[in-house]
Amino acid sequence: MKVIVIATLKKWNIKNFYKLQDSCKNYKLHLITQPQDLTLQNLHKINPKYIFFPHWSEKIESEIYKNFSCVVFHMSDLPYGRGGSPLQNLIIMGIKHTKISALKVNDILDGGDIYLKSKLDISKGSAKEIYKKASKIIFFHMIPYILKNNPKPKKQVGDVEIFKRRKREESNILTINNKNLDSIYDFIRMLDAPTYPRAFIELGNFKIEFYKAKRNRKTISGRFKIYEK
């Protein structure tokens, strides 16, 4: 039986791995959740047909992608949006719909050939909710499609636009250029996911973080935490 490896760090992807395992009868699935386990030695023992990387923020060494078919999933319509923090960069630019690109890993960051793309609505919901929605698309549409059809990846077409990974200090709400209810709501929700720096403001010796934002007709409601610096 052929084997595939799924390497991921997020709980929602791990949950979907086990659901995929139950429905994927023609392949044996192997899960990697620790970067130190992604070694050439371990992979040679497993000998996977594909290694899929949904939401994997660690470096993939060249010895791995040169020996195995490695597929990463990037939340932009490549080659537009290569680089870091694609969801946050898209939302802050006012973009409501994007695509998840499944691409072959090579020596160019997010520059590999494309297996397929799937539409993704990012117009509402927290970053965590959007990541969970993307995970379902990846696990129950994109990975099964690749396994069933073995598509030949095609070179990226279009103008390259590179995103910069957002820095922690850029989560300050006061950095928003055009402040209105919609832009503030988008700013809070795009940073609302585990391991991401939440939207905040500073008042003297206090830092106030905002999360679980809901957009109402004339207001934004949600939750906050106050920390003494």
TrEMBL record:
InterPro entries recorded for this chain?
Formyl_trans-like_C (IPR049355), Formyl_transf_N (IPR002376), Formyl_transf_N_sf (IPR036477), Formyl_transferase-like_C_sf (IPR011034)
Q: Which residues form the Methionyl-tRNA formyltransferase-like C-terminal domain?
A: 170-226
- Ranges of residues in domain Formyl transferase N-terminal: 34-131
Q: Which Pfam families match?
A: Formyl_trans_C_2, Formyl_trans_N
Protein name according to UniProt: Methionyl-tRNA formyltransferase
